[in-house]
Structures are given as structure tokens and as C-alpha cells.
Amino acid sequence: MAEESWHEARLIPTSGINGAEEQERRATSALLAVMTAVTEFGRALTKPLGAPAGRLEAYVEVPFQLRDQRLFPDGLIRVSRGQKSWTALVEVKTGDNPLASAQIENYLDIAREQGFDAVLTISNEIPPVPGQHPTTVDKRKLRRVALHHLSWTKVLSEAVLQKEFRGVADPDQAWILGELIRYLEHPKSGAMEFSDMGEHWVPVRDAIKAGTLRANDKGLREVAARFDALLQFACLDLGRQLGTEVTPVLSRKEMSDPTVRTQALVNDAITAGQFVGTIRIPKTVGNIVVTADVRAASVTCHVDVDAPRQGRPTTRVNWLLRQLKDAPAALRIEARAAHERGPGAADLLSNVREDPTLLIADPSRELRSFRIAFSTPMGLKRGRGRGSFIDAVLGAIDSFYTDVVQNLKAWSAAPPKMRPEAEVESEQEGVDPELVSTALSSQDE
Q1: 409-421 per-position pLDDT tens digit
Q2: Does the pLDDT of residue 442 top 60, yes or no?
Q3: How many CB atoms lie within 10 A of CB 342?
Q4: Tell me: the pLDDT tens digits for 371-410?
Q5: CA 351, CA 354: separation in Å to the nearest integer?
Q6: CA–CA separation, 304 and 133 (whole Å)
Q7: Cβ-based neighbours of 293, under 8 Å, separated by 6 or more
Q8: Minimal CA–CA distance to 329: which of 306, 311, 347?
Q9: Which string of DSSP letters, residue by residue, matches 153-218?
Q10: How many of the other CB atoms lie within 10 Å of CB of 239?
Q11: Whether 249 contacts 264, CB under 8 Å
Q12: Can you tell me the distance from the alpha carbon of 130 to that of 229, in angstroms, rounded to the nearest whole number?
């Protein structure tokens, strides 16, 4: 038999998974075991939850008695350092199974009675705002116990970042972490990507296109929240590829009160037929603004770049063109001058390459910044695949970063250069030594 048909032995096999219960049990056990085996990975996941640096222990299906019920949380994590310890109960869902409020509240009660610190939930649900929990629970139960959530996408991203970019000191531990990554990337693991805009996407989309959308329309706020969740997923996916933390840009008010952000999305959808969000990638020239225009059926990404602070207007335009030499010709570039009201001069990159003066509306005004934008067709389907809204947004962000943003560098002034001594001496020939700029002042003794 040819060796090509042989299956390599795996530490965490995907074969033999029958049903959601077996899927959740295997995912829980695999994740917690790798967290205990790979020190750096366990620390990366537990540190943001408030756990100290220390020895990590993990258990599965630990029994507890709550009133007249015997309950079995999917897992338990304990981190110990000296006399101190931090303990969290773990509830896991895979596939499209949602977290249940009643179940989480029961585990919060158990944690409070046992003196544990937190309850951690893991599922494919991605909250629209970082730090927010996707399930509503009684806030009174959170007075003494913290509630945290990780999406499987976040777990996978942390695993890839740790193995490929931050590093794992022990080669055997690195291999173990690689086995977890391979498992979570397999469709049978139940660790799904963001795959659905929800049941209300189609009616909301059609109402926007028809111009009949109202603030109290059913499902509008859910669609708005799912758009933010999509941006969260895009950040995690892009960060996994780049090896850095990519984050959505939110104001302090939006971070503390997610309803503020949702209301802003709702207002944009009603007035402009758009959903708009911003993502930040470290060490880039600017944030990427993503606009999904439902009426125009297009997804536009743009970035603002500060123009050089010296040189003529054409010199500043040419500075940008040199950085966009391999960019798509269909890019739209807008130049903004100082004290200019309204939009500045704009044209396609293909035309500006031929004539840079197209971006100079008034040569007497100083160019301050450029806006670079690229639009692609927007999919209409609620799920994944060809012609879907989700894939259109993800593809637009990836392409814009690859073709444009990663090639841009911020302008910086050149440092002053030392004048050659020969040049200075030639300028000073025949001049009284006491009057040259390098001589001592006549007032000095």
C-alpha cells in the first residue's frame, strides 16, 4: 500500500467524534491539558483573566452540589503561587450551540459558595465589544465572582501567536501546542469561524435598500451587534496572520457601555444605509476604516495618511505615489489641504500616476493629508461562501492591508547633515579669521 494513504498518528485525534456532547468533552479536555503542558500558552490565556503567574492545574467534569441539583461544570482551572491560588469554573460550547443563562448563573452560584474567583465560558459566540459577555446574566451574581468569555477563534489566535511569534521555549511543548492548533482548525472540532449574520440580516438588508428601515424594526440591533462581532473576528483572523494584536477602535464610552456603540451603528444604518467600523494594527500609518454600504452594495476600506511637512504640493503627492507603485490602479486618493472645507481633490491612482497635479486644487495651499480608499462589491448572503456579506468584508480588509497599508510608511524629516570641512574652508577664504563663524567671538578674551 502506498504511504500517501497512511494517516499520521495525532496527539488529539478528530476521528470518533459523535455528537455535540462528545465534541465539547474532547475540546475541553484537549484545551485544558495543553494549557497545563505548555506554560507560556496557559499563562497567555489566564493572565488577562486575573490569574497570577504560577503552577496551573486543570480538571474536567468536576461534580458540585447546588441546592437539590448535582452539577458538572465542563472544567476547572486552578493557578497556584505560594499560598495564593486563583480558581475558575469552565463552561464550554462547540458548533453553533449557544451558552445558556441559567447554566452560567448556576456556576456563578457554585463559584460563590466555594470561594472561587471566576467562571470562564468558551464558545463560538463573539461579543460585539471586547470584554463584554455574549450572554445576559443576573448582575447581582457578579458581585463576588467574575465572568469571562473566550471565543474559540480567540483561543486559536492565542495558540498561533504563542507558537509562531512569541515562541515556546521547550520544543516538545511547542509540538504539543501545534497539535492543539491542528485540532482546533479541523471542522470536526466544533471550533467554528464567524459564519452567520443571523436570521434578521435579510429583512434588515432589504429594508435599508428600500429606504424603509426604522429604529424599532425587529432584528436591527442584533444585525448591528453582529457587524461588530464580524469586525472582532476580522481582527483576530488578521492578527493571527500578522503575529500581532489587532483590535477594533472604540471610544471609552463605547467600551464601558456597549449600547452606545450599537446605537451609533443603528443610526448610521437608518440615515446612510451603512455599517462602519475601525480597526487598529500596530505600527501602521493609520487605522483602517471599514464601511459596508448596503445601498451601494459595496465594501470600502480607507486609511488616512499625513502628508510630508515640507516640499511643494507635487513633491508631497509624488512621495505618496512612490509608496503605491504596486497598488491597484483603482485606488481612490483624496488630498486634503490646510484650512480646506469639505472634501479635497480626488481621483483614481491610475490617473494620478499620469498627472500628480490632479490632486492639487490650489497650489497656494499646503497639503496636509491623503485619504486612500478601495471599494469592492458587497455580498448579500447571510452565511459564508461565494456572494456572502461576511466573506466580502473579510476579503476587503485582507486585500486592502496586503496591497496598500503594509507598504505605507509615515513621513519623517531627514536629519540635518554635517557640512564637509573643505566646503566650509572654501567659503571662508580671504575672510578675517575673527569674523568666520567658527572663530571665537571678538567679545571673548
Answers
A1: 998 887 888 877 6
A2: no
A3: 5
A4: 999 999 999 999 888 899 999 999 999 999 999 999 999 9
A5: 5
A6: 32
A7: 272, 273, 274, 299, 300, 378
A8: 347
A9: HHHHHHHHIIIIII--SSHHHHHHHHHHHHHHHSGGG--PPP----TTHHHHHHHHHHT---TT-T
A10: 22
A11: no
A12: 9
At 426, the pLDDT band (50, 70, 90 cuts) reads: low
Question: Burial level of 44, CB count in 10 A (0-12/13-18/19+)?
Answer: middle
Sheet containing strand 75-81, edge to edge, reads 55-60, 75-81, 84-92, 118-123, 146-151
**Model confidence at 5: pLDDT above 50:** yes
Positions of E strands within 211-273: 247-248
Look up residue 176 and give its three cell numbers.
Answer: 504539543
Compute the distance between CA of residue 228 and CA of residue 263 in angstroms, rounded to an integer.
12
The rounded distance, in Å, linking the Cα atoms of 20 and 24 is 6
Strand (E) or helix (H) holding 240: helix 220-242
Q: How far is CA 214 from CA 204, 230, 275, 405, 439, in A?
A: 10, 23, 15, 36, 79
Closest CA to 119 of 80, 82, 76, 151: 76
What's the pLDDT score for residue 423?
Answer: 58
Is the Cα dihedral 431, 432, 433, 438 positive or negative?
A: negative
Residue 25 has pLDDT above 70, yes or no: yes
pLDDT in tens, 346-376: 999 999 999 999 999 888 888 999 999 999 9
- In three-state secondary structure terms, 423 is helix
Residue 377 CA to residue 380 CA, distance in Å, equals: 10
Answer yes or no: is pLDDT of 425 > 80: no
Cell numbers for 399: 486585500
- Residue 286 contacts residue 320 (beta carbons within 8 Å): no
Cell numbers that stand for 384 in this block: 459564508
Do 235 and 279 contact (CB within 8 A), yes or no? yes
Residue 437 pLDDT > 50: no
User: Taking the CB of residue 68, how many other CB atoms lie within 10 A of it?
Assistant: 5
Mean pLDDT value across residues 234-253 = 92
Q: How many CB atoms lie within 10 A of CB 112?
A: 15
